[in-house]
From TrEMBL:
This is 3-oxoacyl-[acyl-carrier-protein] reductase MabA. Signal peptide: none annotated. Pfam families: adh_short_C2 (PF13561). It catalyses: a (3R)-hydroxyacyl-[ACP] + NADP(+) = a 3-oxoacyl-[ACP] + NADPH + H(+). Its main location: secreted. Keywords: Cell wall, Oxidoreductase, Secreted. It comes from Rhodococcus spelaei.
Length: 263
């Protein structure tokens, strides 16, 4: 059956930023499809809640509470997955972010921090994971998480958008280096209704404005993203590598205006 191609039975996944939102949904989706999951983020309480959801599927979960801006900490997740589960097949690089700031107020240091948190962390985990994937699983899949503002223009996104554009192109370059045994793909997300957008959920005017600015007339939910992540990790996506899957409701411009002042 075609649905069997979406299974990742008895595989092992590392998911960063797994305490909430897209990371949590991706971890649970992978578990529902048959994977054991190492969950990593800063908040242990949030991770334990997600771990319970993973275990409710009948799969194993292991929690690592750490500051994933620390490159040694994020790289260490690969070895931990191997020690706990005996193998590693899948990596989901979901950690990242940056606050919107007017261009002329964006200091070079903020660009460097955004690149570090979104790109360097992903690369650190990829470098650490690849030897374990090849040795224990023979082949595997890596999915990086980017954003629509890494592709389209929008005010206030100089640091975040530049970093997320780098994530997308890093995906293409890594895919070329790691083919054919490890596939590397990317999901580029539009607005997703997670805790980061709580203000949207609480303000009907802003929420309606964003929905009206989105061709599909709604804001995404974490399961929209996690379904794409699962597709790219599973045999269903086995003929894709170096691709950026746009999961953004059809956006061609950002649908959230931060009201930044003109020059």
């Amino acid at each position: 059956m075609i649905l069997d191609r979406f299974l990742v039975t008895d595989q092992v996944a590392v998911v960063t930023g797994a305490g909430r939102g897209v990371g949590a949904a991706s971890a649970v989706a992978l578990a529902e499809a048959g994977a054991d999951v190492l969950l990593a983020a800063r908040s242990e309480d949030q991770l334990e809640e997600v771990a319970q959801r993973v275990r409710a599927t009948g799969r194993r979960a292991h929690v690592v509470a750490a500051d994933l801006a620390d490159l040694d900490a994020v790289a260490g997740l690969a070895e931990t997955a191997r020690e706990v589960f005996g193998r590693l097949d899948i990596v989901v690089n979901n950690v990242g972010g940056a606050m919107p700031t007017p261009l002329l107020q964006t200091k070079p240091r903020q660009l460097e921090e955004a690149f570090h948190f979104n790109v360097s962390t992903a690369h650190a985990l990829v470098r650490a994971a690849v030897p374990h994937i090849l040795e224990t699983a023979g082949a595997g899949a890596i999915v990086n998480v980017s954003s629509v503002v890494g592709r389209v223009g929008g005010r206030g996104y100089a640091a975040y958008g530049t970093a997320k554009a780098a994530v997308a192109h890093y995906t293409r370059l890594a895919a070329a280096d790691l083919s054919p045994r490890i596939r590397v793909n990317c999901v580029s997300l539009g607005s997703v209704l997670t805790s980061a957008l709580e203000v949207v959920a609480q303000n009907e005017t802003i929420k309606t404005t964003m929905e009206n600015a989105t061709p599909l007339q709604r804001i995404g939910d974490p399961e929209d993203a996690s379904a794409a992540v699962l597709y790219l990790c599973s045999p269903a996506g086995s003929y894709l590598t170096g691709k950026v899957l746009e999961v953004d409701g059809g956006l061609q411009v950002p649908n959230l205006d931060f009201g930044l002042p003109d020059l």
